[in-house]
Amino acid sequence: MAPETAAFTALFALLITAVASQTPPTAYTNYTVGGPAGWFFNATNNISTTNYSSWAASQTFNLGDFLIFRTNSNQTVIQTYNLTTFNSCSFDDASDNDTVQYYGGDSNFNKPLVIPVPLTIKGPNYFFSDADDGVQCQRGMAFEIEVNTGLGLPPSLNQPPPPPYATPPDSDSSQTPPFTIPDETKKNGGFKSVANLRQDLFFFFMAVIPLLMSVR
């Protein structure tokens, strides 16, 4: 094969690979943080139950996707866009519009939780648990992701911060979330929201199902 032909073939293969790697997603995706390990801290060994940075590095995240934290009340979920806050493992000095505490402060330990977190801002997003005065974060409960544009934000999430809670779409569906649950309070330098989404959904469906049954 002539050198020119070989060079052209290599360049063509490189272009095909680049195009394939930039194929846009066809649906929004739900990611269970940590995979089967969930979002937990092993207090006996004083370390996170899995390497969350390695887990995050193996995924591709886009606007409108959800991170699903399967955890309990022994951990917290802090989302920030502030690298200084992330590195400090504390949101005490966070700005009003760059950090969210999705769960924290419950004295009822080992309470099961499923916390859905929508990805609404492109670029670096940082997550950590500030429980035990930041020890959990320092011992592995922290990770960084890069959020790409993907399909862009669905209408239910495309509004000014703080982003409201929303039911995550099915992982194999390109449909947008059907409804949202508004943010409730601001506190301690970061804006905070109701974390126990399952309870809200229960009362929602208890109210809606009779209405649906009455429609002929």
UniProtKB/TrEMBL annotation:
Coiled coil: none annotated. Residues 168-178 have a biased composition (Low complexity). The keyword rRNA-binding does not apply. InterPro entries: Cupredoxin, Phytocyanin-like, Phytocyanin_dom. GO terms for molecular function: electron transfer activity. Residues 157-167 have a biased composition (Pro residues). Residues 152-187 are annotated as: Disordered. The keyword Mitochondrion does not apply. Residues 29-149 form the Phytocyanin domain. One of its GO terms (cellular component) is plasma membrane. Residues 1-21 form the signal peptide. Keywords: Signal. It holds the Pfam family Cu_bind_like. PANTHER family: BLUE COPPER PROTEIN (PTHR33021), OS12G0454600 PROTEIN (PTHR33021:SF213). This is Phytocyanin domain-containing protein. It comes from Cucumis sativus.
